[in-house]
Amino acid sequence: QVQLVESGGGLVQAGGSLRLSCAASGRTFSSYGMGWFRQAPGKEREFVAAIDWSAGSTYHAESVKGRFTISRDNAKNTVFLQMNSLKPEDTAVYYCAARPGYETRWSRLSHVGDYEYWGQGTQVTVSS
């Protein structure tokens, strides 16, 4: 079992920044690939970013590329999502998720069903 707890969400004006954190506990965190997803009201959960277990490779959705950055600190069992230049369309509940094993295929990294563990989510609201 892996338990995930997100924090760092809130209300911010367009153009502002937030840093989300996801603290993990349970099984060996460093052996899991991690991802961030988001879900806006009335929409499906969508992929935002992923990072492999060693932090050697990162992947970002086109909609956030250049603005968001995923990172991890295995010593602290934590994964981060730095969000800059926020837009109103970034408003959503943000979830972190963990997947076992090593994966490089975009189709799998961005697939909700491939992630085994999920946090409870943290709300991000960007005002215009």
Task: Summarize this structure briefly.
The protein is mainly beta. It has 1 helix and 11 strands; from the N terminus they run βββββββββαββ. Strands 2, 4, 5, 6, 9, 10 and 11 form a 7-stranded mixed β-sheet that branches. Strands 1-3-8-7 form a 4-stranded antiparallel β-sheet, with no helix packed on it.
Question: How are the elements arranged and paired?
Answer:
Blueprint: E1 2-7, E2 10-13, E3 18-26, E4 32-39, E5 46-51, E6 58-60, E7 68-73, E8 78-83, E9 92-100, H1 106-109, E10 117-118, E11 122-127
Parallel strand pairs: 2-11
Antiparallel strand pairs: 1-3, 3-8, 4-5, 4-9, 5-6, 7-8, 9-10, 9-11
Overview features:
128 residues; four-stranded antiparallel beta sheet; 3% helix; globular
Structural write-up:
- The protein is mainly beta and 128 residues long.
- It is 3% helix and 51% strand.
- It is built from one helix and eleven strands, in the order βββββββββαββ.
- Strands 2, 4, 5, 6, 9, 10 and 11 form a seven-stranded mixed beta sheet that branches.
- A hairpin with a 6-residue loop joins strand 4 (32-39) and strand 5 (46-51).
- The chain is globular and about 40 Å long.
- The model has no long low-confidence stretch (mean pLDDT 94).
